[in-house]
Amino acid sequence: MGMYDYFKCDTSCPICGCYIDEIYQTKNFECLMSVYKPGMKVDVEGPIRVYTHCDHEKRIIEIKDGAVFSTNRAVWIEHIIPIVNREISRNQNLWKTTYGLVEYNSMSFIPDGVTDDEAILRYKKFNSKKLKDIEITTFERLNKEWE
Asked: With CB atoms 3.0 to 4.6 Å apart as the test, which of 36, 53, 86, 114 could cross-link to 74 if both were Cys?
């Protein structure tokens, strides 16, 4: 895995439209877990690459001893952000964005006081909300194309 730096910015998932509350990661700086933001002066030339993911579906594989093992479907999101006059560009129109669907396995823990059935219900609610978000974003995108 290794070390990296963080990149904090206001963006949304290109598939479901949800605000990305995950902080992006980058290896373009010193990799000391520092936080960078658009508009900051930096001592690098050329564009930087930042990346994160937005979970869309969580499928429980097993619940054992308070741990939830799941397979997650997500959207991998990457931005290539230009550096202009040693400053990280604030103009997101200049950012090159790519994304794609990925799957990964994870393990999380059920909070104290939550039963296995309640944990399963939370996963189902999460999946249901994401499906609605994707439907709304797709509908809005289609309506913009008709304008």
From this structure: 53
